[in-house]
Every structure is written in C-alpha cells, then in structure tokens.
Design brief:
Helix content is about 35%, strand content about 20%. The chain contains 6 helices and 7 strands, in the order βαβββαββαβααα.
C-alpha cells in the first residue's frame, strides 16, 4: 500500500438538463453547462450517436473520463445513461451525476456518494433505470423561488441577472469539484466542497 486514494479507473460524469435552445440557459440545465465546461477545458469532443445522449471520451487531470449529456427530457434521462453505462462497461460506483437542487441556496454545493431522488425528476429516472441510487452526485443549489412563482416556471426559467453575473464562477468551481472527485475520490471532494461558499 502506497497511501494513494482508490478511485475507479474510469468515470462517467453525466450532467442533467433538457435538450434544445429553449432550455439551454435555464436553472434546470446547470448540469449540462458544467459538463460542457469540463469538455471545453479538457478538449473532449461531445458527439451524438444513435441514442438520446451526447457524449465523449478523454482525460481530465490524467484521469480517463466519459462526459455525457442525456438528450431525453429530464424525467426520461435514466434509460440513455444506463445504455451508455452498459455499452462502456461502467458500474454504478463510477457514475457521477451533476444536477440542480432547489433545497440548496444558490451557488451552494453538496456532493453525495448515494441517496434518494430528493424530488428531482432526473435523479428519479436514473434510480428507476439503474435499480437504486448507489451513485455519486454533485447537487448545485439554485435556491427556492418566491411564494408567488410556480416551481416549474422557476426551474425552467433563466437565472436572475444578479445570479447570472456569478454563474461562470460557480460553474468553474463545480468543474474543480468534479476534478477532485476524479483524482482524489468522492469523500475528499465532500470534505473540500460541501456547503462552502463558492
């Protein structure tokens, strides 16, 4: 034993969102945006095959990784991710999912090793497709709306101007958190990033 932290040889990092220009800048699509930023910084080309998923393979900080954006709508994202996992022989322990979270203040992070869906339809679809919630995830806080705004309108709406001004920094911080998961393991990332100010 040389003291190194054991992490999977290869991760599948999936960012959740809805496909199409209509939803590109919405709160619900922050998972898509983090994966796009990771792909851009690591020069990983994302492409569409014959399935409802955009994905690409490459390395981030020396770690082999597959990045993916399911192109089925949020509540149907589980099956295309499961099919990609089967084709690429990725186990649940090597799946890491990025998604928005109403129950965290805007910009806050919470990294989890596993868990339930917390009311998130994308995570619910994944749990249904995989049989349980034994996969890691990065929850990115979007906060809850004012009482006069419907939840659906809020998550499918664009960020407020004051939020949009700090969004790039939050996405950069999320990319740093994902890179830490890949290279040092999920528990190290939890200790470093959970619930801290971005």
């Amino acid at each position: 034993m040389d003291g190194r932290i054991e992490t999977p040889a290869r991760y599948l990092v999936a960012g959740l969102g809805n496909p199409g220009v209509r939803y590109a800048a919405t709160r619900h699509n922050i998972g898509f945006r983090v994966v796009a930023a990771l792909a851009g910084s690591a020069a990983i080309q994302l492409h569409c095959g014959n399935r409802d998923i955009r994905w690409g393979r490459g390395r981030i900080s020396g770690k082999e990784v597959i990045l993916a954006q399911p192109l089925a709508y949020m509540n149907r994202c589980g099956p295309p991710i499961r099919l990609l996992m089967e084709e690429q022989q990725i186990g649940r322990e090597a799946l890491f999912v990025i998604h928005d979270d109403l129950d965290l203040a805007f910009g806050r992070f919470k990294i989890k090793e596993k868990g339930g869906d917390g009311g998130h339809r994308g995570i619910r679809s994944l749990i249904d497709a995989l049989g349980n919630g034994d996969f890691g995830r990065l929850r990115i806080g979007i906060g809850r709306p004012a009482s006069d705004i419907e939840i659906v309108d809020y998550v499918l709406g664009d960020f407020f101007p004051d939020e949009a001004r700090t969004l790039n920094a939050i996405i950069d911080h999320a990319c740093e958190a994902v890179t830490t998961v890949l290279t040092a393991g999920i528990r190290t990332a939890m200790n470093r990033f959970n619930m801290r100010e971005p």
